[in-house]
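ugh ok fine here u go
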Amino acid sequence: MDIYNYIRQDHRNVAALMDELLSINLSAVQERIFRKIRLELSLHAEAEEQTFYKALREASERADIEDRIVQAREDHDEIRDLMTFLINESVGGPRWMEKFGELKHAVTHHVKEEEVEMFAKARRLLSDEQAKQLARDMAKVKQTIRVPEHEPTE
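structure:
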């Protein structure tokens, strides 16, 4: 598996969890699903920044790549801020659901830009073997940052 499919798989997993959360009206179940979403988004963003974005930065000195990486990191920061807000609100309440909608929108927007714009640029910069190695590297990074306090409880 290459980095593009690895990241797409992460994106689809989070999207499915978000859809599942929105389809359920039991706050206890929503809370459990949100913990999984938080974990997946946190692991994904951290690992992606340490591997994929770093590799792109090293492969190119072009300003358009750097601008895209800066924008992607800003997207990650916005997503982290929204999750922090959601952690401190009552799951399932009207304000929480409104902010969760904003989170879902932010993630969807980030995914679209990344999969269309950044992947196209990355394919020109990275070899097939580099892309496969980055997928392995990202999986390893996610395992190293998977610490107990991040794990969802069942």
